[in-house]
Amino acid sequence: MRAALILLGVVFLATVIVRLPPRALLWALPADVACEAPGGTIWSGSCGELRVDAVTLQGLSWQLHPGALLHLRLAADLTSDDPAASGHAQVELARGGEVSIAALRAQVALPGHVGLVAPGTSGTLQLAIDSARIAGGHLTALQGRSVLQQLRLANPPADLGSFELLFAPPVAGAQLPGVAGAMLGQLRDLNGPVSVTGVLRLSPDGSYELAGSIASKSDAGTDVTQLLQLLGPADAQGRRDFSIAGTI
Fold first, then answer.
1. CA 77/CA 43 separation, integer angstroms
2. Residue 51 has what DSSP assignment?
3. pLDDT values of the chain reduced to their tens digit, one per residue, 248 residues
4. Is the pTM of this model over 0.85?
5. Would you list the DSSP string of 57-80?
6. In the chain, where are the structural domains located?
């Protein structure tokens, strides 16, 4: 009888919790996270506006996965209806703070929510990330594809076309030289006035290095030709090397 009462109490408590409105847990959010106009329930809810530091996302909704709770994990389907950053993804938070992301499909307008581009840059970033993992606040694994469409620079003004960055599944036993645990992305142009090939190395500590070469195509305008001259003299094939490094 006692066990039945305890079970009944647990079921009742769980029912109450999943029906609580999201505002009931707003006090537990980190200081740099704010959910405005919450709706629905903790189980299936939404934020009219989500703010994380300086980033704002409109129309975020979620649906929790009950099965993950049996393994002491928090998992949910997330959807954003923000016109500047729309998309959806499956997100799972494990003990220790590790975050796993799967089936991420999104479209982001530049500059929008992307803070790594120069002022005045415009374009559209399409993301098709099959899987990613974040641990200790840094990206530690990544597989998928991103396409930057219709990239335009403002200073100096130039239309550069579209580009693809592909992170393929790691090859068993392969090791990137000198970069333990690094993720390797292949960069190439899809269309436009320039030909680009390059390699992006992302390290688990948040550092990155993009190195490659670029050349103007035969139909490139004077704006693109003058822009490439800023990289220095071209080699015999008309290509110029470039390298960018930093920390995210």
1. 11
2. E
3. 444 333 434 444 444 445 557 776 666 566 778 889 999 888 898 999 998 877 888 999 999 888 777 777 889 999 999 998 999 999 998 877 889 999 999 999 986 545 556 777 899 999 999 999 998 888 999 999 999 999 998 888 889 999 999 999 866 555 544 455 789 999 999 999 999 999 999 998 889 999 999 999 998 999 999 999 989 999 999 999 999 999 87
4. no
5. EEEEEEEE-HHHHTTT-EEEEEEE
6. 32-83
